What does this fold into?
Amino acid sequence: MEPLTTAPDVATHFRPGQLELLNRSGSVVRRFALRAGPLTLGRDPGGDVVLDDPYVCPRHALLREEAAGLVVEDCASVNGIASAPGRPRVARLYLASGMTVRIGRSTLRYRSAAAPLPATLVDGAAVGPLRLCENPVIIAGLCLLAPLLLLLKTYLATVTRVQGGKLLFEPVVTVVVVVCWAALWSFAGRLLAYRWHFWIHFGIGCAGLVAFLGLDVVSGYLCFAFNLDPLQPLVDNLGQTAALALLLFAHLRFVSAAPSRPLGRAAVLVSLAVLGLSLLTEHSDSGDFNSSPEYQVTLKAPPFQLVKGRTVADFMDEAGQLSTQLAEHAASKE
Amino acid sequence: MRPLFTLFLLLVLPVASQSSTEGVYARYRDTVLQVKIVDVASGAKASIGSGFMVSADGLVVTNYHVVAELIHQPGRYRAEYIRGDAGGSGPLQLLDIDVVHDLALLRGAKLTGAFLRPRLDVPAKGERLFAFGNPHDLGLTIVEGTCNGLLEDSLYDKIHFTGAINAGMSGGPVIDGRGAVVGVNVASGGNQLGFLVPARHVAALLKGSGGNPAEPLLERVRSQLLANQDRYMRGLLGKPFVTEKIKGYDLPARLAPFLKCWGDSRHEPDNLYDQVVQTCASDDDIFLTRQQATGGIRFRHDHYSSADLGPVRFYGLMERQFNKPDFDPDGDEKSVANFVCTSDLVAGGGSDVKVVFCLRPYKKLKGLFDAYLSVATLAGRDQALQSSLLISGVSDANALAFARSYLEAIRWNP
It folds into this structure.
């Protein structure tokens, strides 16, 4: 049976342009140049635009040029045509540049030759200081530095005679965790940007580890040197949040082609959410009863001490405020 | 000869029967009671102790720790007595307490009959005594033992009784051969080592020296503890702290006879540091509730040194040790609040020190606190001292004064 058409098949020339066959993620998998028409769209290998789609009829639709523009007409097909998946089927559909037509389960997009092409994307994170992440020497240096720092940290925390195996255990486990972390980011990068970047993600992970280790040590020594123990939780939280934001931003730049600003915003938001969650947990735990005193004081070797101690009398005067605080707290609860 | 023999029998036999164990038991058993603390909801006994009649109209003495739950959880428990072999039981009403000496005075409305009188002096060492009670709920029991005088170096009077006192006998009387109460069973150290509250404190309780009868009992607990801590703290703070030299440091030592001090040196083959420890503690904690004893003083000095660690690792060790409190004080969420702490760098004697001072209030006993002080010296690259103090059940003013004296007594004096 011959399909019905609404206009005689008079040969005409199309305006310059092309039809793009899109996949599910919207990427172009095939292009059909439009020259002279009308063109038949269907599964028939002898047709003009052949679609290997079992939901498409052999002669499914007809593409023709009219005075008003390009139009697709349904040739009494089984599944019809629509402007997009899920939209109602129509008999005719005018196509402006950038519009799509759904035929069976295939999606075609019309692109006029006059329509501007999208801006060229920047390849990966190759901008600013993040360019350093692609430097193999720096990646190798970070991959070496992080385990060494871990080893040093474990050694400094060990006060017994131990075998090397015990010293190596924590650094090895941590490096394995960083490898898994880098692999996850690489996998995400492969899905979104078609690139693995494993060593870059591993280098970023190691840089993050070095930053966290360094922050812990630096904040401890600074708070001890200037006798600022009460500020240490604040310094730690701010430092760790900033480090986490930078770490996430660096990973995201190599995973997504999106511009820096939204990626930066996303990294900061996630870091602030992690900080908020951690503070919330801390706050909820602070109400729990503990029969022992809880405190955190820095204690380093005397040469690092840069300020002088207060007098005993001054300290005890301040300690005397504790009972006032407790009384006020009890009164507020009552 | 015969009249003389008859006279001998007349004179000696009554005394012999009076002081033989079975005679004593037969004569005084009706004065001793089992005291039961009954859970009101289930009607079952929650704990048991012993007690004894001290008046013909039903006044009964037992230990405070037997009936403490009546004060701290009123409405949840009630007290009842079961009267020795004579049978009979009934409710008991708590009238007064002496929390410091662990005594309580109760009244049984239907209780009448024979009673015991306190003996105000302490028997000589070696005098034969008889302890009554209901060990492990096995029924009224008599235990023969000997008096070994008052405990030396104790903050509160206690008679050292050599005889088996077991759980359930708390509050039971210990009498001499004439039936006078010498003391009240209060604690056991195992292996025939028993401790009694001297009967003069029973007499004081009976005279109403416990305070105003209209005062709620919990308030009386509070006022007695406050007065008691003021008394012994005045004694401690009224003179310079006794110090002892350990590894170049002058440190608070045995500040009072009631403190017991012990020392130890630790050098584990695997450790890259040496540790010298001295601990001092009072053995005279006051029972407050099942979860909490109070009135204790504990402190310990830990000297660390190492030739192998180097300053960074050595002070890493010190930091970890310092942030781990040495004491785990008694008390639960119902009785005490969390500690609040302040810390600072303080110019100590001979070197700067890091100091942490923490305080927590008692929730039901206003004005009483537990205090914790910890000090770490910054005197050397390879040796340092950590000293910690815990005092419980004191006023905030006394806690601060004691902590200050303690801190000032620590000197680096190589």
Notes: DSSP finds seven helices and ten strands in chain A. Confidence is low (pLDDT under 50) at residues 1-8 of chain A. Residues 128-280 of chain A form one domain. Chain A touches chain B through 47 residues (CB under 8 Å).
